[in-house]
Amino acid sequence: MIREERIFSNNDLQIRLFNGLSQKEAEQRLKRYGPNELTKTKKISVLSLFLDQFKDFITMVLLAATLISYFLGEIADAVTIVIIIVMNAFLGFIQEYRAEKSMEALTDLSAPHASVLRDSSVKNIPAREVVPGDIIILETGSRVPADCALIEAVNVQADESILTGESVPVEKIPIKTNQIAETITKEHKLFMGTTLTMGRGKAIVLKTGMQTEMGGIADLLQNVDKEPTPLQKRLDRIGRELVLICLGVCALITVAGIYHGEPVYNMFLFGVSLAVAAIPEGLPAIVTVSLAIGVQRMLKRNVLIRKLSAVETLGSINVICSDKTGTLTENKMTVKKIFAGDTMIDVTGSGYDIKGGFLTDKGPINPNNYTPLQTLLMIGALCNNAEYKNGEISGDPTDAAVLIASKKAGIDQKTAGHFARIAEIPFGSDRKRMSVIYKERNGYYLLVKGAPDKIINICAQKLDASGVSMLTGTQKRTLLNINDRLAGQALRVLAFAYKKIDFSPKSKLSPAIEENLIFVGLEGMIDPPKAEAIKSIKNCYGAGIKPVIITGDHKNTAMAIARELGMNAKENNVLTGDQIEEMSDKDLENKVSDITVFARVTPKHKLKIVRAYKSRRNIVAMTGDGVNDAPALKEANIGIAMGKSGTDVAKEASEMVLLDDNFSTIVNAIEEGRIIYDNIRKFIRYLLSCNLGEILMMAAAAFWGMPIPLVPIQILWVNLVTDGLPALALGVEPPDKGIMNRPPRKGDEGIFSRGLGTSIALSGFLIGASSLAAFMVMLYTSGGNIAKARTVAFITLVIAELIYSFESKSETSNIFEVGFFSNPYLILANLASLVLTIAVIYIPFLSAIFKTYALGYGDWFVVVLFSIIEFTINSLIL
């Protein structure tokens, strides 16, 4: 039977309250009203991105020198230099274009989504596709995608601080479905960009995009952070310092050359060319490309990086504070034990299969013949927001487990049709319980489920086989002991209670109503650890990372799961929320190093825990999914939100999103972060060593009064061929063996730490010295043939640098241990560089431009001999 469709007018919109818009109607409205997004800043065009490559100071100086060459009649030099400048600019453009596209892709992935009712079914769509007239589904933590009016609401409160600056959540009430737009007031409305801090409901979209209250704010999209990362800032600073040093050295070399009789024009062009070759102006672009490529690689491993700075930080993480449920465990709860009346009952069956039964130590038990069990299962079915339909269940995993247990007795919301839900007080992390009010023929009943310690403390009576009786202090302690026993079996335990109440639908709900309840029983459910999580925990310990469980569960449950995961979880390694409350910040700071499990904690405790770890100079990753987790996520060095179960607020506060809500994915991300940072160090080592070698060779020759070993056009070729391509290839180098068997790097570690600076200096000196030595030997043995000597120096420098690119594959192992063929991109880059360089020596047309000399077999012997000097010495040292 098709339900009657109600329609009311709102600015000529026909709004379907029950079935929602059809997909066809939605598409028409999307064309009419446009995407639900705020005006974006104009993107940089492809042409602008290319032209930006010529705005670099050094490039402009080189262009000026090119003009001087042209007017002095050196047309071939001028044309060649222009070609090289354009090729260099093209490489830079490709790098930045790829990085820009990668960031755009991530922006699209991290953009907000919304749950809408379309064609009578709930669909999750990008928020930009929401149109006026859509019916959206909202829950606690949801970000409101457009301006809308509530039509159904259960205790909805919204945080409107983004609009008003007021931090206190605002209570919202639903409109009557026969109201017209003119009577909708602010108390009915939810605004784009605000978030639900409490409750759930449905709302009708009134306005979208720039027509919303937030239309004047252009900062709502969940953009990937485009600020330079700390590493990029450090490299930019280093680059500026190198520019000043190189310009100074090049000026001195130019003056020295003129002093020794070289032509002023030649030395000027030479000085500018050497500056371009020596300054690693491409370094920031290569870093950006490496980070972007790494981010895309992480995406394939179910990690969405929202801020590039997180990639660098990942390699320093030494503490992971993780939620238990769904992250470390399967998140498929199954009720295994029930305590009702005075009887412990086993529940058979597994997962979300409704086949199963109930057993006591005396045999099977029929819930219909045992009032406490029947009542408990009835409360479980009614105090529940999960839905079972066509063999599939949706909703919170705990609710799902409770509902499945009830259905094993044939009890669900349909079979309890004489009960009608009137109101709900949703589960709160501070209250640790959920309550509903149902109307029955005999009056109103409050049904409650939640944490046993919280529920038992607010109960005054109990239900057993003989009926309702007083609940004494001794009996409460007995129930808490039973709860501890169940929790000690790694079961998550819920308590169930109820009472009959005097209630009016006009009454304002308050948690104070949840007092003097009748205790009914306990349900113990298991959520087994994920097999991959056990392996990942082991990997954490091997990588010097401390995994920490933070959970709202009972400490015995948390300890049992921790032990199954292979973690050290003894009594003195566990802290509860109540204990944290009694501790000063200083006491907690002194204690956290010994803690493996935090149990019974609230989101505000998470913030204290993160701060305590950070105060001990730890680099902390924290997972979270709820609205109240946002402060802890922001405080952590890396906040990690859940992609499936996480709220929009949690995702916004995070640097990283787990698309599969899996702990092992965090460990994978840390591994990728280490790989990326290692590769950045590899090409920094390569680029700076090569540039240092070039400038040392030229400086030494100039100051000793020798002829210049390389002409400007040759220096520019070396800069283009041997710097760019191999450096990019090193950015995708496979990881070193045992990358997860070493401790994390320190958070304040400098880029040249762990001997990198020494390695750069030594290799740069050896490359420069061997190339200069080859020049001197050939100049002497060839009877002063300067063109031949320069060609030998030129090809020696190129080959020495290409060989050095293979040495740069690892900081801890030599090339024979790492292997020559592990990175095919590096092999291709080196082959291309070598073939092109040989071409400029032996092809007459190119040889004339690059002022090279066709070498014979004996000359190549000198080249090979001197080009392997750096490699031989470094191999002996390693």
> Based on CA inertia axes, which overall geometry fits?
elongated
Strand content: 15-25%
C-alpha end-to-end distance: 80 Å
Number of helices: 29
Instruction: Indicate the structural class.
Output: alpha+beta
Mean pLDDT: 83
> Major beta sheet, specifics?
11 strands, mixed
Task: Give an overview in words.
With 878 residues, the protein is an alpha+beta fold. The strands form five sheets. Strands 12, 13, 14, 15, 18, 19, 20, 21, 22, 23 and 24 form an eleven-stranded mixed β-sheet that branches. Strand 21 and strand 22 form a beta hairpin. The N terminus is likely disordered.
Write the layout of secondary structure elements.
Layout: E1 9-10, E2 13-14, H1 23-33, H2 46-51, H3 57-71, H4 75-110, E3 113-118, E4 121-126, E5 135-138, E6 147-159, H5 161-164, E7 170-171, E8 189-190, E9 195-207, H6 230-259, H7 264-278, H8 283-299, E10 303-305, H9 309-314, E11 319-323, E12 334-340, E13 343-347, E14 358-360, E15 363-364, H10 371-382, E16 387-389, E17 392-394, H11 397-407, E18 420-425, E19 433-440, E20 443-450, H12 452-457, E21 459-464, E22 467-470, H13 473-487, E23 492-501, E24 517-526, H14 531-542, E25 546-550, H15 555-564, E26 574-576, H16 577-582, H17 585-591, E27 597-599, H18 603-615, E28 620-624, H19 630-635, E29 638-642, H20 648-653, E30 656-658, H21 663-703, H22 712-730, H23 756-781, H24 786-807, H25 815-818, H26 824-842, H27 844-850, H28 857-867, H29 869-877
Parallel strand pairs: 11-25, 11-28, 21-24, 25-27, 26-27, 28-29, 29-30
Antiparallel strand pairs: 1-2, 3-4, 3-5, 5-9, 6-7, 6-8, 6-9, 10-30, 12-13, 12-24, 13-14, 14-15, 16-17, 18-19, 19-20, 20-23, 21-22, 23-24
